[in-house]
Structures are given as structure tokens and as C-alpha cells.
Amino acid sequence: MELTRRSLLALGCSAAASPLITPVALAAAPWDTRLVVIILRGGMDGLDVVQPYGDPDFSALRRTLSQGPSDGAIDLDGFFAMHQALADLAPMWRRGDLAFAHAVSTPYRDKRSHFDGQDMLEAGTEHVGGGVRDGWLNRLLQVVPGAAAETAYAIGLDSLPVLAGPAPVSNWSPQADLTISPQAMSLLELVSERDPALHAALAEAQMLDEDTGMQGASLQKQMNTIRQGAAGHIKIADFAAKRLRGAARIAAFSLNGWDTHRGQARGLSTALGRLSQTLLTLEAGLGPQVWGKTAVVAMTEFGRTARENGTRGTDHGTGGAMVMAGGAVRGGKVYGTWPGLAEADLFQRRDVMPTRDVRAFAGWIMRAATGLDASVLEGTVFPGMDLGTDPGLMP
């Protein structure tokens, strides 16, 4: 649909009239394993999060960004290193409770739009659109006998399409002091999607730390307040852990701030710090017994370009990385087939070449957690997808 002033006004009025939706949703289910799905909105740079410093072509692509243990990253296996902002998770890696999958993506290609990429990720489909109106986690609930919803606790701010659909779920979000309406922020993001300069400027503003005193910090404070509130990720993780200790078996929420067009070293460190705190809060809140039965999956809509750009950032790409954690996960390993970073090995000579569908890793975790047959996951939860061979993510 062509974006016009009239369509923007209509969208704003429609959004203002609709109920507020939450960034956290939980559902009770009859199995014992807990599943936490985190949507990393903005396109996480997998090459910086899990740095393939052992690849001979890596250093030439990243001029100022971290290039492995020599720059402070945490060595994982002699080939990959974990970004230093995840240093607090090193004990989790050594215990075997943290893993990554590299060179993964949804089937989305070429246009690299956040909106289309997130729609495909959360719908779990082969194509953008196609008439699918529910998310893959909701479809999972639709085929699990005895699944029931939790009681609603409060209002929320962000939609979570991955859990949208006819299966009932409960909604909750931490309270926030709104200084800019969520509808206005959504409109700004929608407009910036078609204006590269505005998009990059908005991404830069989102990366500014509110404690630096730099111009634009107040905008960052307002964005953080809107999206998650003060330390909202901690509140969300703490609440999810409390519910998962009880009847709930699925928790899903989103973390923002992964669109690192400029100043990636600062912006990605901030986002990874929040992810690290989220995982540690979940682990502490669940306690050893429940954490041992928990699988956390953190997924993003696409990766970023293999080459660093001229503003010390990276642009929208294709292949990326997936983060997995929890005592139920076989951690201490980087899963996936590494494609290499020579120019001829890159997708369109610019992006990491995807070697496996990110949905396959999520699918195998769900199969181990719920006991559902692979044919149900391929036919209903992720329609049309071939799960392929079991990577052995869970016992």
C-alpha cells in the first residue's frame, strides 16, 4: 500500500482507538519444559555478537569493530569469540547453559525491511503476508491438548505477533510513564523505513545512552520509557520467571535496540548488556530446578552486512545469529554450518550466507520441549518448512 498522509492519519486514529497490547505474554501448558522466546527487534549483528575471528577474511571486513579475543572478546572454541558485553554470561557458557547458532535466517531475502522481516519471523511463514494472521507460538498452543491461558494482569505497550491468534494467552507489561504516545513512535518508525537518512538518524538516537548528557539523550529516555520503562527488561524477566515457576510454560517478549547503523560499538554493547541482564534475571528468578528445565530462544529478523560501513556501523543484511540459553539446552557450542566470509561466499557479495533456517532450530527445541511430532511442526506451526536433521539442541 502506498504510504500517504491520509493513510498515516488513518493508521494513527486506528491505533489510538485499539486496546494496548503487551510485550509479554504467557500461557499455561501440560508439558514440564519451559520455553522463553525473545524477539530481538532491529536486526542483531551476529558477526559482532559471535565473532568468527578464526575466519581469515573476518578482520578485513571489520575495521573498527571487535575482531576477537585480541580486542577483548571472550574466546569460545578457538574459532568463535563472544562479544565482551556478554562477559557476565561466560560462566553460563562454561556450564553448558548457553549456545549460539550462526549463519541462520528466516526465508526473507533482498528488501531488508524491518517490518517485513519481523512479520515473517513472528508469523513463521515462507513468504511475507500470504493471509496468515496468527503467530507460530500461537499455532503451537492450538495443537497442544489442554493448553490454557493465564489471567490478565495489566495493560501493555508493544504488540507481539508471534503469540497472536485464536489460542488464548495472558498479557502483562510493567507500568510506564508515557511521554510520547506509542502510536506516534510507530508512525515515526513506519515513515523512517522509507527514508534511509531518517532511519539511520532514528537508529542512532535509539543508541544514545541517557546518562551521557549528549544531545538527543532525552529522546532515548522517552523511547526507553515507551518501550519498556525504566529497567523494563529486568521487570519483564522477573515477572516471566515468577509465572514460569507456576503453571505457565511459555513466555515471549521483545528487546529493542539492535538497529546499529552508526556507532555500533556503543549501541550493540548497550543492547547486549540488556540481553545479558535479562538472561541472568531469568536464571536467578527461576531457580536451579526450573532453570534446568528451561530453554530460552532469542531470535532477530535478519543479520547485518558483513562489511562495516562508513559510520562505524553495519546495515541491514541476511544471515545472522541466534542465542539459546537454559539448563535444558545443550550449550557450550556454536551450532550451524559456517559458510565463510570470502566475497564469493557472501550472499549477494555483502551478507553472511544463511546455511539453515532459524525456524528449524526453534522447531527442534519445541519438539523436544512438547513432544509434538515433527510433521505437526512442519505442517501447522511452521507450514511448509522442512525441519531437516535434529541438531541435538536438547537431550
Describe how the helices and strands are arranged.
Layout: H1 5-17, E1 24-28, E2 34-40, H2 46-49, E3 50-51, H3 58-61, E4 74-75, E5 81-82, H4 90-95, E6 98-105, H5 114-123, H6 136-143, E7 148-149, E8 170-172, H7 182-192, H8 196-207, H9 217-227, H10 232-244, E9 248-255, H11 264-291, E10 294-300, E11 320-325, E12 333-335, E13 356-357, H12 358-370, H13 374-381
Parallel strand pairs: 2-9, 2-10, 6-12, 6-13
Antiparallel strand pairs: 1-7, 1-8, 1-9, 3-5, 4-5, 6-11, 10-11
Helix content: 25-40%
The number of E-state strands comes to 13
Strand content: 5-15%
Shape: globular
The end-to-end distance, rounded to whole angstroms, is: 46 Å
Q: What's the main sheet like?
A: 10 strands, mixed
- Rg calc: 20 Å
Order of SSEs, N→C?
HEEHEHEEHEHHEEHHHHEHEEEEHH
Secondary-structure-based class equals: alpha/beta
Low-pLDDT windows of residues: 1-22, 151-156, 176-183, 207-230
How would you describe what is shown here?
- With 395 residues, the protein is an alpha/beta fold.
- It contains 13 helices and 13 strands.
- The chain has helices at 5-17, 46-49, 58-61, 90-95, 114-123, 136-143, 182-192, 196-207, 217-227, 232-244, 264-291, 358-370, 374-381, and strands at residues 24-28, 34-40, 50-51, 74-75, 81-82, 98-105, 148-149, 170-172, 248-255, 294-300, 320-325, 333-335, 356-357.
- Strands 1, 2, 6, 7, 8, 9, 10, 11, 12 and 13 form a 10-stranded mixed sheet that branches. Strands 3-5-4 form a 3-stranded antiparallel sheet.
- Strand 4 and strand 5 (81-82) form a beta hairpin.
- It is globular and about 55 Å long.
- The protein starts with a helix and ends in a 14-residue tail after the last helix.
- The model is unreliable at 1-22, 151-156, 176-183 and 207-230 (pLDDT under 50).
